[in-house]
């Protein structure tokens, strides 16, 4: 299986911005936020524990979780899930990898779980999304789904 450390294209790399604007008081320092996000992105295909992220930032798990949400608008698990979906959409759109391979590459436990999470987030299953993305060029028509 081909391993992508990031995204196969630059247009998908720019899509990783899923943060909601928020007041940073009580949030992570910019350095810790960057470190946590980088750890997540570098290990997206692995099981990422919030406790490991907190330890890397030298914070307790509970404080890290609250501060991360305060900084990004999303809990660590929500941000991880969003990044996994962004990467999955990029791989679906730009590679010939099977959905099973994509689910593994993006850190989902199996294809069924991936399909469930993807369908819940996008409103269509990954196979259907792939067809629409390919027909639309680079996904412009996907907003209409």
Protein described:
The chain has 145 residues and is mostly helical. The chain folds into two domains: 25-73; 80-144, Orthogonal Bundle (Arc Repressor Mutant, subunit A), CATH 1.10.10. It is built from eight helices and no strands. The chain has helices at 10-13, 30-42, 50-56, 61-72, 76-94, 99-105, 111-122, 126-135. The chain is elongated. Residues 1-5 have low confidence and may be disordered.
Keywords:
145 residues, mainly alpha, Arc Repressor Mutant, subunit A, 2 domains, 8 helices, disordered N terminus
**Overall pLDDT, averaged?**
85
Q: What would the principal axes of the Cα set say about the shape?
A: elongated
CATH topology name of the largest domain: Arc Repressor Mutant, subunit A
**What fraction of residues sit in β-strands?**
under 5%
Topology at a glance:
Blueprint: H1 10-13, H2 30-42, H3 50-56, H4 61-72, H5 76-94, H6 99-105, H7 111-122, H8 126-135
Describe what is shown at a glance.
This protein has eight helices and no strands.
């Amino acid at each position: 299986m081909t391993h992508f450390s990031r995204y196969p294209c630059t247009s998908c790399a720019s899509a990783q911005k899923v943060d909601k604007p928020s007041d940073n008081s009580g949030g992570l320092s910019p350095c810790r936020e960057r470190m946590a996000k980088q750890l997540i992105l570098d290990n997206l295909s692995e099981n990422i524990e919030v406790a490991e992220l907190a330890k890397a930032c030298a914070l307790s798990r509970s404080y890290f979780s609250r501060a991360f949400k305060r900084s990004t608008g999303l809990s660590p698990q929500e941000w991880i899930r969003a990044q996994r979906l962004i990467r999955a959409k990029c791989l679906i759109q730009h590679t010939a990898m099977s959905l099973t391979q994509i689910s593994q590459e993006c850190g989902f436990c199996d294809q069924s779980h991936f399909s469930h999470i993807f369908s819940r987030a996008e409103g269509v299953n990954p196979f259907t999304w792939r067809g629409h993305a390919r027909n639309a060029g680079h996904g412009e028509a996907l907003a209409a789904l």
